[in-house]
Amino acid sequence: MTDFGYKEVAPEEKTRLVGKVFTSVASKYDLMNDLMSMGIHRLWKRQFVAGCGIRQGDRLLDLAGGTGDIARLAHKAGARVTVADINHAMLTVGRARMDEAGLVQGFDWLQVNAEALPFADQQFDHVTIAFGLRNVTWRDRALKDMHRVLKPGGRVHILEFSKVGLPALAKLYDGWSFQVLPRLGARIAGDADSYRYLAESIRRFPDQETLAEQMREAGFERVSWQNLSAGICAIHRGAKV
């Protein structure tokens, strides 16, 4: 059994349910991100990509690439980007956004399961995953496959919601997550349950040091992490030596 928010479900059922969540919210995903974070997610993502150390021509795999925010920033920094997501609806929205922006060249789009990457060993200089790792059914498998497809010297970069370090902020954050977000989801996306799951999935995700240790167990070295907004989310990075 594994977790789907606060529920315990069979692994194959989690994969199906997560797929249902993101198919439901895909068309409103970007708008809801802006509303849920009051636009702060854009600052988090810019800081995340700015710290990746991308050099011109680097090959970057963006997992759970969704609607393309990370891919666009990485491309602007000089990377050749493969955008991968398990959810077809999210990829469709992302490609449409890029087309509207006139960004047709420099991206590959693939429907991919992060636990079984269809790439040969040592293909990428960077692997990024932003707000997607907590939705993976078998996190250990995904981390090991990220390690496998990186070149020696390549780096993994993970941006994910984490554990808030300030008790007063944590209390406010809980109220926002469990009272406000489902109501926003109902009003804007017509789906309160998916946003309730997203709030629950954050609470079930490992804290900063636990995730760092899981990265080490997958083979990554020089693992580090940095809190953003007092730990509402965190950036983890690791290297393949």
Automatic annotation (TrEMBL):
InterPro entries: SAM-dependent_MTases_sf (IPR029063), UbiE/COQ5_MeTrFase (IPR004033), UbiE/COQ5_MeTrFase_CS (IPR023576). CDD domains: AdoMet_MTases. S-adenosyl-L-methionine binds at T67, D85, N113, A114. Pathway: Cofactor biosynthesis; ubiquinone biosynthesis; Quinol/quinone metabolism; menaquinone biosynthesis; menaquinol from 1,4-dihydroxy-2-naphthoate: step 2/2. GO terms for molecular function: 2-methoxy-6-polyprenyl-1,4-benzoquinol methyltransferase activity; demethylmenaquinone methyltransferase activity. Keywords: Menaquinone biosynthesis, Methyltransferase, S-adenosyl-L-methionine, Transferase, Ubiquinone, Ubiquinone biosynthesis. Pfam families: Ubie_methyltran (PF01209). Belongs to the class I-like SAM-binding methyltransferase superfamily. MenG/UbiE family. NCBIfam families: MenG_MenH_UbiE, PRK00216.1-5. Methyltransferase required for the conversion of demethylmenaquinol (DMKH2) to menaquinol (MKH2) and the conversion of 2-polyprenyl-6-methoxy-1,4-benzoquinol (DDMQH2) to 2-polyprenyl-3-methyl-6-methoxy-1,4-benzoquinol (DMQH2). This is Ubiquinone/menaquinone biosynthesis C-methyltransferase UbiE.
